[in-house]
Amino acid sequence: MTFVEMRRWTTADAGALYSAFVGSPDLARQLGGASLQDVEDCAAFIETRLAAPSASSYQFAVAVDGVAVGNVGVSAVERAHGTAWMSYWIEARVRRQGLATRGLSTAARWAVDELGLFRLELGHRTDNPASCAVATRSGFRPEGVERSKLRYGTERFDVETHARLATDPEPEVALLPLA
Question: 89 lies in which domain range?
Answer without folding.
Answer: 4-165
